[in-house]
Amino acid sequence: MNFDFDNVTVPFRMQPGLRRIAPEDPQLVPLAPGSALYREKLAVLQAGQSRHVAPGFDPTPALQAIAERVPGDTPLELACEQDLAVLDGDSATLPWLCVSVPSHWAPEDKVGLHFAALHAPVADNAALLAASEPLVRLVTSGECWERHVWTISPSGRYDQHPRRHPREPWPAPDDAQAFAQRCWLRVERQTFFPVGRGTRQAVFAIHVMLEPLPAVAGVPGAARRLHDSLASMTDAVLAYKGLAPAREPLLAWLATCCA
Question: InterPro entries per the record (predicted)?
Answer without folding.
Answer: HODM_asu-like (IPR021848)
